[in-house]
Amino acid sequence: MGTSRAACAGRYFGPVEEIDRRIVRLLAADGRMSFTDLAKQTGLSVSAVHQRVRRLEKRGVIRGYAALVDYDAVGLPLTAFVSIKPIDPSAPDDAPERLAHLEGIEACYSVAGEESYILKVRVGSPVELEELLQQIRASAGVSTRTTVVLSIPYEHRPPAIDLSPD
Amino acid sequence: MGTSRAACAGRYFGPVEEIDRRIVRLLAADGRMSFTDLAKQTGLSVSAVHQRVRRLEKRGVIRGYAALVDYDAVGLPLTAFVSIKPIDPSAPDDAPERLAHLEGIEACYSVAGEESYILKVRVGSPVELEELLQQIRASAGVSTRTTVVLSIPYEHRPPAIDLSPD
DNA sequence: GTTGAAAAAGCGAATCT
DNA sequence: AGATTCGCTTTTTCAAC
Fold this sequence. Notes:
DNA-binding (chains A, B), alpha+beta, Tscrpt_reg_AsnC/Lrp_C (chains A, B), two-stranded antiparallel sheet, Alpha-Beta Plaits, Arc Repressor Mutant, subunit A, 166 residues, homodimer
């Protein structure tokens, strides 16, 4: 190997080094933390932190920022997981692109197992879920299996980014 | 009814009115948007926006802010969905609390269907997934069924908050 | 990475509609 | 009640070191 990468006793910590991981961890837990606070927490100057955050954004390590919302309060009280399977398994599998235009689909995961993708959807009511399922089937040529979410004990807990040595 | 709530042709838009929904939508898409920009996008004064955002935070409509991170880059390249089912169905169901201390569990959904909860987990490697699954089974007295995520076409798309009339 | 200064944004109180 | 204007403070941002 020509390059020396971050590794430690068999555990690979990814291409982001210690201080950067601290920054990412802090911002994942509080996306609006100021550069001033970030500097205090990391022991760096404000400018140094600023520079690192911009670099992390540019490299795509930080992909963006989001407010975490109460979906009940904004009229989207119904969450569901929709597993999909192509009706014609020999057809090209471009379901994610075919579904990207549909509002209400929050995420699309390609998975191992019986089905090919799991979608996470948020809608306003059972009728809206029904309509969305019809659109999913029609748009992607798939069958669907839906698991309705009854309640959400917790969600979006900040990631357990490891801070061990490089 | 004594109170008049937001309703429109059979569609209930939640307890958050038009302009507030605009604000929430904008912040969900860009959690670091400045109050100045927010004011421009909504046609309000900066102070008015400021006041509304604080109120939305206090009411819990905005629950927090988070940086969206590239999990591969920070050493958590393995995502999975873990469906759990109590081994003893007559025992009290407090799985969410019993699992809350475990790092690596990002979300916990109570669901309708064969299993009782779906967990979303992020770990660094297959071995770490194995260890986490053992901890889940031991901590909550459940059996697990795991669906490994192979790739993530998209995730955390901003919610389709409706902006129709109240 | 650091310091330091200018520009921008955040924030609270008083005022007005 | 809710929006606006006014100042002051903090943060952001961009120089040069």
